[in-house]
């Protein structure tokens, strides 16, 4: 992910996700054990089919990928030069 992608994810989180979720839910040891040990694609797939709770799947694939990038940033993963893809197969290998 890139820093710019994570910044977009932060904006999406603030405008959509924060209505039901606090940022702290996506950091720390429990979140890291649950999601950061698996391929990034698992987290992307989960939020893209289940969130937002009142409109699952309502965001674009790019917005979901940006939110995942924001979560990676929140958990101390360093940004790189390429954005996270929106392709589930590619994300499954990450």
Q: Could you explain how this protein is built, in words?
A:
Helix 1 crosses helix 4 and helix 3 packs across helix 4 (61-74). The N and C termini lie close together (11 Å). The chain is mostly helical. It is globular and about 30 Å long. The mean pLDDT is 96. It has helices at 3-15, 29-36, 40-50, 61-74, 88-92.
How large a portion of the residues is in β-strands, by DSSP E?
A: under 5%
What is the overall pLDDT average? 96
Report Rg: 12 Å
Total of helices: 5
Tell me, briefly, the overall form. Answer: globular
The run of helices and strands is HHHHH
For the largest beta-sheet, the strand count, sense and barrel status come to:
none
> In terms of per-residue confidence, which ranges show pLDDT below 50 for 5 or more consecutive residues?
none
The percent range for helix content is 40-55%
Number of beta strands = 0
Layout of helices and strands:
Layout: H1 3-15, H2 29-36, H3 40-50, H4 61-74, H5 88-92
Helix pairs in contact: 1-4, 3-4
Structural features:
globular, mainly alpha, 0% strand
Task: Give me a quick take on this structure.
Helix content is 54%, strand content 0%. It is mainly α and 94 residues long.
